[in-house]
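Supplementary Text 2. Reproducibility record for the structural model of the 188-residue chain.

All settings were left at their defaults, and a single model was retained for analysis rather than an ensemble. We include the record here because the model underlies the residue-level annotations in Supplementary Table 4.
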Amino acid sequence: MEWVTDYCRNNLPSHQPAWSWHNLEVDESMPGRATWSHNPHLIMLKDFKEFAFKGNLVDMAVGIIIGGAFATVVKSLVDDVIMPLVGLVTGGVDFSEKYAALGGEIPEGLSVEKAKEAAAESGVALLTYGNFITALISFLILAFVLFLVIKKFVGAMKKAEEEPKEDPKPSEDILLLQEIRDLLSKQS
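Retained model, structure tokens:
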């Protein structure tokens, strides 16, 4: 393969495209394998491979998947547990069905979906503030739980840093040399 590299370097013009034999380089550490070092697509593919198979990317992917599942749990907690309790405290108010018509009239007592349809037919803007309140409560719970997790993680990191590191005990060779040194110093 070395003759191919020599031939390409000596006999092909320098204006060859990136995929040509001119850019073919032989990797001396792996005989028989050649790479196109100047091809931007192959360089990008190599960089992507290095990025994709790092441990941090896998950790990030796991975190995103767990975060998505956790967001679903928090949404269920807000919709199915907290908001009914808030509704009980406020006299049976269901926040998910709260809306206000802006610039027009919409019949009272409609569900949010039917109110949206009626607003679209009559050209009235509809402000569904109940959904916003529910989403805001979900966000606050998620942010609080995330705060607790990060606080515990940072606390554990600080605790690990603050622990005094024990001086490693010297090896037997060092101890023996120290004894010899001490004996020699006593004799002189």
